[in-house]
Design a protein that fits this description.
Oligomer: single chain
Strand content: 5-15%
CATH superfamily: Aldolase class I
CATH topology: TIM Barrel
Radius of gyration: 19 Å
Strand order of the largest sheet: 6-5-4-3-2-1-7-8
Number of domains: 1
CATH architecture: Alpha-Beta Barrel
CATH class: Alpha Beta
Structural class: alpha/beta
Number of strands: 8
């Protein structure tokens, strides 16, 4: 009984099955004692875990029943610190479905007023939710870049991973965005898609898959987009549960470890990104946030937005790492902006 309980807990810890130490050892093999930060250029804000979907691969474990939502005071303090952070050029808003947070549109407007480029991590179907009829127009009017999840260009695979009818709704949302000018010739409105594998495998070559996506979506649905980002499924929370239940956890972790690529290290998102949680805690990346691996070398008590006056000036600080970091460094690498090498 105790052994079964211990095994069930392994996926949520970065050092499960010794993978954390394996990652540190692999860095040393390549002459790197630790990963260290460059100057922060991106502020990623996770506004909560509330979502209109509950996808099988979700490392956030987001869903309609989650109650973790960023409060107004946290949102305001985040913008106060952003105003004092000259190195940050991009604000990347995620969730959950970030658009369902009551402070989402305020965060977008404030970030734009501060001269920052804004990215919305969108699941597409939220555009069709009740009360969101004007969401697309709002995003277009504010010039927000949309990074939208679409794990395949076929309905079978998308609906298997994300729920019945999600593919059809996603296509409707993409057509709506195209009609607003997103991804059309001469338009500055950026629309990028995100692919992640349905199962326990690494993503294919990003450039080739992007070409396939463009051909299939244009031919069958008349949909246009700019780029496709391939992202590796992280062995965290919901996807880790799937791996454990299907008996694939150890095999998948070995796949990530065996495909470690040192060429991904210079472009890891944790080098230039700071992640703000829905409760105001600070992390090196969104994955560390979900594992509660604090920004100070894995401290159990990470700094919060009330403990800092700027997000800039962190170059040279050690990044908290663990076994899940093999997910970002396997194969061509994986980040919020897709492949790294």
């Amino acid at each position: 009984m105790l052994m079964a309980l211990a095994n069930s807990l392994l996926p949520i810890y970065p050092d499960g099955n010794g993978a954390g130490e394996k990652f540190a050892h692999r860095l040393r093999e390549h002459g790197l004692a630790d990963l260290v930060r460059a100057e922060t250029a991106t502020l990623q804000i996770n506004v909560g875990k509330f979502c209109n979907q509950a996808c099988n691969h979700c490392h956030v474990e987001a869903g309609p029943k989650r109650s973790e939502i960023m409060r107004e005071d946290v949102a305001r303090r985040t913008m106060e610190v952003l105003a004092s952070s000259p190195s940050i050029t991009t604000v990347d808003i995620t969730g959950g479905a970030p658009e369902l947070n009551p402070n989402f549109r305020w965060l977008v407007r404030e970030s734009k007023l501060l001269g920052r480029h804004v990215i919305d991590r969108c699941n597409l179907t939220v555009l069709l939710e009740e009360g969101q009829a004007d969401l697309g127009r709002f995003l277009a009017a504010e010039g927000v870049e949309i990074v939208a999840s679409l794990p395949c260009y076929t309905s079978e695979n998308v609906n298997k991973q994300r729920g019945k009818g999600v593919f059809e709704k996603s296509i409707a949302a993409l057509r709506q965005l195209n009609a607003l000018g997103y991804a059309l010739p001469g338009s500055e409105l950026r629309l990028n898609l995100v692919y992640n594998p349905v199962g326990a495998s690494l993503p294919p070559v990003q450039e080739r898959l992007e070409a396939d996506y463009k051909e299939q979506l244009r031919k069958h649905y008349g949909v246009e987009f700019h780029h496709l980002y391939t992202i590796t499924n992280m062995p965290i929370h919901r996807f880790a549960d799937y791996l454990q239940q299907s008996g694939k956890y150890e095999t998948y972790m070995n796949l990530l470890v065996e495909n470690f690529n040192a060429g991904t290290l210079p472009n890891l998102m944790c080098r230039t990104l700071v992640s703000v949680g829905w409760d105001g805690k600070l992390y090196d990346c969104d994955f560390n946030q979900m594992l509660e691996v604090g920004i100070e070398n894995g401290s159990a008590a990470p700094h919060t937005i009330w403990d800092v006056t700027t997000f800039s000036g962190s170059a040279g600080r050690r990044i908290a790492t663990g076994g899940h970091c093999f997910g970002c460094t396997a194969g061509a690498g994986s980040s919020c902006g897709g492949a790294l090498a």
